[in-house]
Amino acid sequence: MRVMLTIARREFIAYFATPLAYVFLVVFLAGALAAPFYFGNFVDQPNFLSSGMASLSTFFVYHPWLFLVFMPAIGMRLWSDERRQGTIELLMTLPVTPWQAVLGKFFAAWAFATLALALTFPIWLTVEYLGDPEVSVIISGYFGSFLMAGALLALASCVSAATNSQVVAFVISVVVGFLLMFAGLDFVIDAFSSWAPDYLISLIASFSFLTHFGVMTNGLIEVTALIYFATLITLLLLINRQIIDLTRAS
Fold it and tell me: What is the DSSP letter of 40?
């Protein structure tokens, strides 16, 4: 545990070693806070100002699409830099197990994403000032965003471990994340409904981030959503570790 925390602390601090972390935070916060005010109609919901309700529903509905870009941007460097610089072999010669390294890097990225998410608190304060929102719904929405960020970061870390190019890791992570997002949308389900059995349609929909995240933004923290995100994160990290093991053996 101590070794993993040491790696996580080192990786987290490394994010702030260059101005890129601060640029990322500013751009993410600008997008996250501006979207519900100006672009609500693009997601078939009134924007924050015209809705007339003290609600963050429009705020959360943009998170999957923001995270689809920003989480791979955080995770793309986790292992690709190590591979490009040849330091992954050095890391594996230290008294560090692959599992400790994988978890340390992942939790550092997740902590950085959590910091970015926490910095959106002014919009919560704004809603509290303007009305009387349901706090449980807001907390559930933030928790859903936290889990979705973790899943996308685990995906980015897994892809990053397989390439020495940050650009390749970013693109592949975005594409795979995009497919996972779209799995539960109506037009995808309609494409299968004409010929596929109901159990297959339900299985496809169950892989969608939007399906499980949407439940949590409505104030419900279902066991199925928790199991989905926990299983996906665990599976991707296990694959990540296997890739590192193969790298060390080669």
Answer: G
Q: Mind listing the pLDDT tens digit for each residue in 198-247? A: 666 676 677 788 888 888 888 888 888 899 999 999 999 999 999 888 77
Q: Which domain holds residue 80?
A: 2-249
pLDDT of residue 212: 85
How many domains does the chain fold into? 1
Interior angle at CA 222, CA 217 and CA 57, nearest 5: 5
In 86-222, which ranges are continuous DSSP H helix?
A: 87-93, 98-118, 121-130, 135-160, 166-182, 186-193, 198-206, 209-217
pLDDT at 11: 87
For 26, 34, 41, 128, 222, the CA distances from 38, given in Å and listed in that order, are: 18, 6, 8, 20, 31
Please give the average per-residue pLDDT across 122-140, as a whole number.
Answer: 81
**Is residue 88 within 8 Å of residue 82, measured between CB atoms?**
yes
Cβ neighbours of residue 231 closer than 8 Å, sequence gap 6 or more: none
In this structure, which long-range contacts are made by residues 18-22, counting pairs with CB atoms below 8 Å and at least 24 apart in sequence?
A: 21/112
Distance CA 202, CA 225 (A): 14
Q: List pLDDT tens digits, range 147-173.
A: 999 999 999 999 998 888 889 999 999
Q: Kindly indicate the confidence band of residue 94, based on its pLDDT and cuts at 50, 70 and 90.
A: low
Closest CA to 137 of 192, 206, 214: 214
Kindly state the greatest CA–CA separation across the chain.
60
- Taking the C-alpha atoms of residue 52 and residue 8, their distance in angstroms, rounded to an integer, is 43
For the four alpha carbons of 23, 25, 28 and 34, in that order, the dihedral sign comes to: negative
